[in-house]
């Protein structure tokens, strides 16, 4: 734990850089992940991926024989409090090691990934999902993170990643089949700010389908998104956030639609769906957390990151809405100092959301072109 506290200081010191004068009109300073921050963030999943308790199993019991230890039920994904947090904790380590091969704990990370994502362990995870009553297990949030983990391994050009991807393949295939079987049956979208949000589950799955050129899945997600969202107008952003939200129903829907539409089509759709955000004077305050030791209330730190990645994404697709990047940065900066926290309620999952927001920031930063209308604000 002392190493985590030291890493907190590294992460926070990097966040508190001075603001550059606004009279110098230059590109926005987007959050940018460096190796020191990556080392600090990696400690969170490393600290929880082999921690069995506390644990929220979300288990359906058919008989007493199914009452088992978390590691027996889920030999790959037993840590980090719940299954989906374990899955995306593995994604975090893959992303960080792929981006920074010289991480201080690189060898520890490799060994953990090899151990957890073994072929035998993954088959056991598939067997669990095939048991009676488990067809809806982690639908669609955990499903989406399995596909994101597979995608991250696939795009990592290293022999080590090839083996892990091959090991994961039976679970990946199971999740793809589950999406294809489930989406036609889902008559209405789930518009909540937590795990079952439909737009979020479709968004990550669509990323996977594009990378793998999985035409059947891609076509189904596009048709489902259009069926649910094409005619939506006037999303009630003033109703957000909900008290336990870590996803924005309005922004996650917009983030999905920007992926499936061409920029011009998306701009027209967005002008009806969220007309207020396209105005240059649009303002949105970051969410505030009342108690970071409460596992539900700390969700709002995650909301700040997810709002940020959605707004970065909109800016990437429609650079003329660059004012949204300042709002994204404000949200990012309001919660980044709280990621490497000493309390497990947030520490078991928030690193992933911070990393994902970092990645979205990097994507929009690479595509920024105009200089004249940008303003500086705090750089991470």
**Uncertain regions: pLDDT < 50 for 5+ in a row?**
1-25, 369-380
Can you summarize the main beta sheet?
none
The domain tally reads 1
User: Oligomeric status of the shown chains?
Assistant: single chain
Strand percentage: under 5%
Structural class, please?
mainly alpha
Mean pLDDT over all positions: 90
Distance between the termini: 24 Å
Global outline: globular
The number of distinct β-strands equals 0
Rg, nearest Å: 20 Å
Quickly count the helices: 16
Helicity, in percent? 55-70%
H/E order of the elements? Answer: HHHHHHHHHHHHHHHH
CATH class category: Mainly Alpha
Task: Fill in the CATH topology.
Answer: Glycosyltransferase
For the record, the CATH architecture stands as: Alpha/alpha barrel
Features:
16 helices, globular, 0% strand, 380 residues, disordered C terminus, Glycosyltransferase, single chain, 57% helix, mainly alpha, disordered N terminus
How does this structure look, described?
It is built from 16 helices and no strands. It has 380 residues and is an all-alpha fold. The N terminus and C terminus are likely disordered.
Short recap of the structure:
This protein is mainly alpha-helical.
What is the strand and helix layout of this fold?
Elements: H1 2-15, H2 35-48, H3 70-73, H4 83-99, H5 106-116, H6 119-130, H7 141-154, H8 159-182, H9 198-212, H10 215-229, H11 249-260, H12 263-273, H13 299-317, H14 323-336, H15 344-347, H16 350-367
Helix pairs in contact: 1-2, 2-4, 4-5, 4-7, 6-8, 7-8, 7-9, 9-10, 9-11, 10-11, 11-12, 11-13, 13-14, 13-16
């Amino acid at each position: 734990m002392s190493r985590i506290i030291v890493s907190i200081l590294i992460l926070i010191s990097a966040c508190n850089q001075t603001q550059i004068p606004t009279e110098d009109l230059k590109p926005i300073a987007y959050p940018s992940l460096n190796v020191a921050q990556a080392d600090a963030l990696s400690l969170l999943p490393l600290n929880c991926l082999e921690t069995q308790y506390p644990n929220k199993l979300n288990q359906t019991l058919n008989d007493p024989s199914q009452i088992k230890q978390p590691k027996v039920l889920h030999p790959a994904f037993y840590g980090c409090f719940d299954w989906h947090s374990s899955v995306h904790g593995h994604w975090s380590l893959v992303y960080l090691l792929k981006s920074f091969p010289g991480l201080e704990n690189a060898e520890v990370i490799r060994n953990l990934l090899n151990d957890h994502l073994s072929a035998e362990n993954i088959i056991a995870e598939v067997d669990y999902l095939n048991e009676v009553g488990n067809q809806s297990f982690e639908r669609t949030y955990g499903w989406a993170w399995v596909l994101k983990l597979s995608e991250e391994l696939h795009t990592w050009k290293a022999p080590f990643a090839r083996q892990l991807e091959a090991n994961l393949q039976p679970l990946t295939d199971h999740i793809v089949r589950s999406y294809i079987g489930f989406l036609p049956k889902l008559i209405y979208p789930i518009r909540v700010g937590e795990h079952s949000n439909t737009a979020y589950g479709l968004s990550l799955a669509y990323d996977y389908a594009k990378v793998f050129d999985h035409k059947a899945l891609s076509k189904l997600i596009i048709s489902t998104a259009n069926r649910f969202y094409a005619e939506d107008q006037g999303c009630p952003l003033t109703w957000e956030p909900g008290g336990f939200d870590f996803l924005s129903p309005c922004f996650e829907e917009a983030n999905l639609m920007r992926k499936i539409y061409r920029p011009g089509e998306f701009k027209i759709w967005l002008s009806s769906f969220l007309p207020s955000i396209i105005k240059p004077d649009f303002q949105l305050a970051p969410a505030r957390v009342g108690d970071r030791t409460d596992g539900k209330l700390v969700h709002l730190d995650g909301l700040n990151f997810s709002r940020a990645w959605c707004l970065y994404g909109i800016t990437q697709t429609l650079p003329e809405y660059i004012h949204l990047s300042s709002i994204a940065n404000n949200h990012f900066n309001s919660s980044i100092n709280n990621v490497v926290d000493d309390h497990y309620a947030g520490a078991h999952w928030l690193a992933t959301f911070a990393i994902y927001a970092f990645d979205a920031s990097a994507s929009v930063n690479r595509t920024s072109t105009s200089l004249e209308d940008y303003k500086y604000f705090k750089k991470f």
